[in-house]
Amino acid sequence: MDILLQEVGYSYAKDTPFEKRALTDVSLHIPSGSYTAIIGHTGSGKSTVLQHLNALLKPTEGSVMIGERKIEAGVKAKNLRDVRRQVGIVFQFPEQQLFDETVLKDIMFGPMNYGVPEEEASRRAHELVEQLGLPPEVLTKSPFDLSGGQMRRVAIAGVLAMEPDVLVLDEPTAGLDPRGRREIMDLFHRLHIQKGLTTVLVTHSMEDAARYADRVAIMHNGHCVVTGEPEEIFSNEEQLGDYRLEPPRTIRLQRKFEAKAGIKLGAISLTEEALAKNIALALLEGRDSE
Amino acid sequence: MMEKMIFGRFIPGNSIIHQMDPRAKISFVFVFIAIVFIANSAVTYGILLGFTLLVVFLSKIRLYFLINGLKPVFILLIFTFFLHIFFTREGDLLLDIGFIEIYEEGLRQGIFISVRFLVLVFITSILTLTTSPISITDGIEVLLGPFKRVKLPVHELALMMSISLRFIPTLMDETGKILKAQMARGSDIGSGPMKERIKAVVPLLIPLFVSAFKRAEDLATAMEVRGYRGGEGRTRYRQLDWRFVDSLSLLVLAGLAGMLWYFRV
Question: Which of A20, A260, B194, B210 has its CA 20 to 30 A from that of B57?
């Protein structure tokens, strides 16, 4: 499902002394099936953009097209349930939304709100708990008895259980240990490919953006300043610096290596694996030419 | 919706009202609440309303914003207004449509009570809007000082107050966040039939309580760690400063009381 933001502007608490402009003239196209990373410095408007993707916030200027549905500034939008079912959001610290007596009921809450029959919802819950690497016993426990990492996974399962077409992730791994981060990010990537989801990842982590995304958008001071492929965005260090961002670790290491060894690697390394391969290739080439 | 609520909010500014000493403002509000009950006629209520609007004007807070922020209060206001209209049976009969009979006295009472309510809500809102929670607490602590003699835990009361005031906006923001998260999961408190809306309260309240308790615990720990031991022997960093405007404001209030007394029927 395509999402298209056209000249979107948004002010919080409009018409009060607390009015605060968050977005100005943001145009962004999220093509169906893409994995888009939205990166930017703190306070750049990333999270505000994200909430427009399923009409939790309505633009105060411009319009947002979500699939066939158009949400326009100044026009009352009714019956947004369909939109919200199709676009699932995993918020920052999603464990805060847990409330039900048992994990099972909590995961079933979303799908049942959207009219999925009980057996089907329960089936999805069982399946997701397994996919997320949780032991099946947790289903009968209270979500408040789980550890922080487990709560996070349950909350994510609660969103995935709605089987959205578009999955929007707001720093889904903030505060998790490195291994948990990797597992969850890999899971999202697997789902993205298996189910042909459209994924939007809002993140501070350039490494995650470089590793998983096929498109990157940079937000700066409420504007969407650049969009493009990760290779071109992350190889342009100067531009990243302008927006107070750093290239991912792998590229920083690649640059250091290039400077020290005096060789230029063939391609930009977005992941550790790619970096290792690029270095190996360069070294092989160097040996062959000797 | 949440961001328009103004209970317990503080809007920084530098109007005369903002600059007043919190002790003066708090005493002013309490005396004013008492004075309001002197009024009993159209003229006196008119004076009260005029005076209140003057205070709003001096505080440089936009009337529109104030009215918008107090919308929930108006529902209560309208409710009491109609209660008076329908249930007071004195004076001349003004209107009679079958089961509804409206009497002159009912209408009068309805209007008076509404004005009284409005004036009280405005003045108390102006107090919290123009005074930071910290100054309010400082003021209350000093004003209640004499009661320490009878073992009233004044400092603790003031602290409790400032903590609750401090956390109103935080809890509001949190409510908004959880509301959105649940909306994204298809539970919408803002639309749909009444039954659905009531059902949607549980997924909102439980997470809110959980996080409020967690916050309280964190706060207690943070205070403990910094060696908080209550008010005994505690010195103040912020000193209160009573100036001419403060005395003047109380004089004006006395004048207002006199005027109301004079015009009272």
Answer: A20
